[in-house]
């Protein structure tokens, strides 16, 4: 049976149920509630823009987008976005999803912290970013009515979310500080990881092995 919150339907499929259970079992409450909110916000922003999308793919992408912040799926050799993208693709392919659809979800998750570019790609890719931008940064906040916000937050509370999600980022990225190069995670480690030295893009260019 489909779940409907603030006029947004969560597909009542086995794939959705399994994705929900997987993330609920491995993620902290902060991350799980955030991922679910991302689906609702992305869906609402899609409706406002008249964007047609596949709700099942959007749901899986939203649920898995921060899986790389969990202890079970976090690696130390790549960005956390790729951790979640890789696992989502594996999850979908194992359940018979076509390669092109699984790749779409991979791209949605891998690019969800990259400003602007997702909005020029497939709707599912854009809408994961749309949901993340709203929940974390408040971008698009006024596109959602107070009643809609209250309905979603009643189900998935934002209890001290701002501090909570920063703690989650710090915990996941601190063991792999090299992945903060040229992205927002350097800001987090600079604030919360004593001794962190931010890598500089200009230095990287000037210190490359090329003579000129």
Key descriptive features of the protein:
single chain, 212 residues, mainly alpha, 2 strands, 58% helix, two-stranded antiparallel sheet, globular
- Give the uncertain stretches in residue-range form: none
Q: Whole-number average pLDDT?
A: 96
Give the helices and strands as they follow along the chain: EEHHHHHHHHHH
Strands across the major sheet, in which order? Answer: 1-2
Annotation field: number of helices: 10
Distance between the termini: 63 Å
Overall morphology: globular
Helix content: 55-70%
Sheet with the most strands, sense and barrel status: 2 strands, antiparallel
- Beta content comes to under 5%
The SS-based structural class is mainly alpha
Number of strands: 2
Radius of gyration: 18 Å
